[in-house]
Amino acid sequence: MTLSAEYLATVLNSTLREVTPLLLVTLCACVCSKVSVFNIALEGTLLTSAFFAFLTQYFTRNIYLSVLVSVLVAMLITFIMAFFIVHLNGQSMIVGMAINTFSLGFTTFMLSMVFNTKGTVNAMTPNGLLTGLTKLSIPGLRDIPIVRTVFNNLTVIDYLAFALAIVTYIVMYKTVIGFRLRAIGINKSAASSLGIRVKRYQIISTTISGGMIGLAGCLLTLGSVTLFTQNISAARGYVALAANNLCKGHPLGALLSSFLFGFTKALASVLQNTAAKQQLLECIPYVSTIAAMAIYNVIARRKSKALS
Amino acid sequence: MIFEMKDITKVYEDGVVANDSVSLHLNKGEILSIVGENGAGKSTIMKILYGLVKPSYGEIYVKGERMRFRTPSDAMAAGIGMVQQHFMLFEEMTVAENIVFKNEIRKGLFMDMDKTIETVRALSEKYSLTIDPSARSADCPVGLRQRVEILKILYQNAEIIIFDEPSAVLTPLEVDALLETLKNLAASGKSIVLITHKLQEVMAVSDRIYVMRAGKVVAERMKSETSIEELAFLMVGHPMTTRQIPAVHPGSRLLEMKALTLTQDGRDVLKDISIHVDAGEIVGIAGVSGNGQSELIQCITGLCASTSGQVLVQGKDVTNRSVREIRDAGLAHISEDRFVWGSAVQATLEENALMGRQDSAPFSSHGLVRHSTIRSYAQKLIQDFGVKASSPTQKMQELSGGNAQKLVVAREMSMNTPVLICCEPTRGIDIGAMESIHDKLVARREEGAAVLLVSSELTEIMSLSDRIYVLYGGKINGEFQRDAMDDKHLGLLMVGGARA
Ligand SMILES: Nc1ncnc2c1ncn2[C@@H]1O[C@H](COP(=O)(O)OP(=O)(O)OP(=O)(O)O)[C@@H](O)[C@H]1O
Ligand SMILES: [Mg+2]
Question: A190 vs B73: CB contact, 8 Å cut-off?
Fold first, then answer.
């Protein structure tokens, strides 16, 4: 294996494709954590919406409808999560785990019901060949060799993900609504003592941000490849939690932190063709998550000590 | 008459009658004080006016119009604001952001930060309440944070401002500034209600005074017609006695600090503190708050690790040991803030009474707690210290501020340890109950305990202590014996003056 520019471009390309779903989920986590709703149902939400994106495409062959259904499903699940945690005062850990466990069971069951398999359904279904999201090829970029490779095979939603990071930042940090949401996250009782309906703000904002998980779900099943595998979300929801922790809920920071985790994931798959042991490679994203958190916290602690 | 409350009665869910047909009114531009014992119902009546608590019966009129407040926002819309004892701030946000919350200055969907800061600055200048609009509120000292709360209310255009024990957490200088602010506000046409236990403050600023006892208004006085003595008499129902403390000869050394030093952020918060308290002594630490008192106590009680030096309890070195070990060496601690260190608000009175002794006889054996013993013990504490509570299974947060304080004091004093550390033992406590706590402290001293007393009330320190150390800038700046006390000299040392 030679380390050519073209090869690096390929790595960068697969990094980008790993980053975008993770980024979308992290953005949802950012909003949830800013309004102090601890959402660990990200994983289950992602899995279920990914499944529904695939299912809708299988039955309707309408890509727009598939995206819409996936987004709505994600919003519905996030709403249920928020309703239980915020309105009914449920324990966020338990609500989240319940949704995650249910999602895994439900999608596995549906997979075997509809497709009669417990493993993978690929684009070549009994119903004919499925097509995923259209790959964009941008006129200026597709003519430059290396750059072409970097941006190869990206869909509208991939580009949208980056745009949404900026939009989320502007909404949370520049608008009046965002200001109130952040204030609520800092001190709920102060906000409600001024007559703000805190629960309503929390539920609505988390539900809307849940839609971004739906977009991530589409990327998993209808993005660079068109397929559904059992547990296709593969802990991305939890990695997003870690990414959110690293960026402290800041949407622009989420760009960096999800890039870091996306890169390690891509690295793991790129190295598959080498002599390294498969199982070891699969550890990379998770080990690096733990390492990143540890390093980050050590630095943060040093800094606060140096400051004081 | 800007507001009037007619025959307000409040019965809480557990049957406690907190207000019993209370009628009161406020005139425009007036400063009205409400005084009364702990649990008299002062906070409750004002929470009703502010829409935080719903009255069981009674009517509220604002400017002659009948009002029904369901939430504080209803009250706010009617021009009523309240500075609560526990501040309600968004810590990580700026002062300006805190003030405009809910009525933001916007440019379309966006925040107009420049204009926000400008408006807040103009507001602070208008009422001469100086603040830095772009400072983070978490970084502001208590006095400034209170100012932010006041500005928040002024920004909402409130005409009536309620203060519930606003001076309890302030340093003496900040108290002076606050009283000045109250007068300015009244002069600018705002109407003010002040709840406080400090009768000097009442006499300094108010125009009219209501005295409450057991849920009722028992007296109404104009300031010009009354005196501190009369108010005290009206509050507790009997004249106050002056204390005579019998001389006791100090015994063995029970608490000792040797060159205790604490360095934080490269600064010596405590430097070379060498003090001691002997058996049968009450030793006061006098000083303006923020000169190291809190840190000193935290270093003694194991809540904070000192940098160098030693702490000895009954001769045993307990420097930087765990709280458990230090307490086991024979020390009890009434902490400065009843809700931060002193109690668990969500727990019951019983549980709070037990805390710290849960694994020793007679409260538990073989790892199991004995409920009946604990219950009767809690009941005894409640009785002995006159805590007004409906039952020992009530939650701590349902007590009035002063009664919660009494329970914490009761628990720590009843441990009967040789060493007792008291920080602000009577914060938020009415003058009657204060007397009885002081009596108990003196009694512990006569039994041979060593008492270390920290208080921002100089009178409290002067009247109880056998010896006083003055703490200034983290150093001991003077020591007095009881018969050599002189408040002028003491005051001078407290602000860093030279030793005689
Ligand atoms: N949420 C509650 N539930 C039940 N009882 C309560 C509640 N809040 C207050 N009380 C009771 O109502 C009575 C009056 O309380 P309130 O807080 O008005 O007293 P206060 O005059 O402000 O006393 P303090 O000077 O100690 O602050 C007390 O007996 C208290 O125990
Ligand atoms: Mg009160």
Answer: no
Q: pLDDT, tens digit, for every residue of B24-46?
A: 999 999 999 999 988 899 999 99
Cα separation, A54 vs A66, in Å, equals 7
Q: Does B267 touch chain A (CB under 8 A)?
A: no
**B263: Cβ contacts below 8 Å, ≥ 6 apart:** B269, B307
Which stretch of DSSP H or E encloses residue B404? helix B401-413
Mean pLDDT of the B69-95 span: 89
Q: With a cut of 70, list the residues of chain A below it in pLDDT.
A: 1-3, 304-308
Tell whether omega for the bond before B141 is within 30 degrees of 0, i.e. cis: no
Those residues with Cβ within 8 angstroms of residue A186's Cβ, 6 or more apart along the chain or in another chain: B90, B91, B92, B93
In this structure, are residues B173 and B147 in contact, taking their beta carbons and an 8 Å threshold? no
Residues 157-196 in A contacting B (C-alpha not used; CB under 8 Å): 174-177, 179-180, 182-183, 186-187, 189-191, 193-196
pTM > 0.90 = no
Smallest Cα distance from A93 to chain B, Å: 21
Domains and CATH numbers, chain A: 5-125+153-307 (1.10.3470.10)
Task: Return the closest-CA partner of residue A222 out of A94, A12, A60.
Answer: A60
DSSP per-residue codes, B267-304: EEEEEEE--EEETTEEEEEE--TTSSHHHHHHHHHTSS
Provide the b/e sequence for B411-435 (b: ≥16 CB within 10 Å). Answer: bbbbeebbbbbbbbbbbbbbbbbbb
Task: Identify the pLDDT of residue A149.
Answer: 84
The 10s digit of each residue's pLDDT in B327-378 is: 999 999 998 888 888 889 889 999 999 998 888 888 888 888 888 899 999 9
Please say whether the beta carbons of B388 and B403 come within 8 A: yes
Give CA angle at B237 (B170, B401), nearest 5°: 35
- Whether ligand 1 lies within 6 angstroms of the CB of B433 is answered as no
CB environment B139-156: b (16+ within 10 A), e (fewer): ebeeebbbbbbbbbbbbb
Residues 85-104 of B with CB under 8 A from A: 88-93, 97, 101-102, 104
CA–CA dist A73, B81 (Å, integer) = 44
By the 8 A CB rule, do B133 and B94 touch?
A: yes
Give the whole-angstrom CA distance, residue A275 versus residue A145: 29
Distance from residue B82's CA to the centre of ligand 1 (Å): 17
A175/B101 touch (CB, cutoff 8 Å), yes or no? no
Pairing, β B450-454 against β B276-278: unpaired
Rg (CA), chain A: 20
In terms of DSSP H, where are the helices of chain A? 5-34, 42-60, 63-82, 92-115, 145-150, 156-174, 176-186, 188-193, 198-222, 236-247, 251-270, 278-307
Residue B298 confidence (pLDDT) = 92
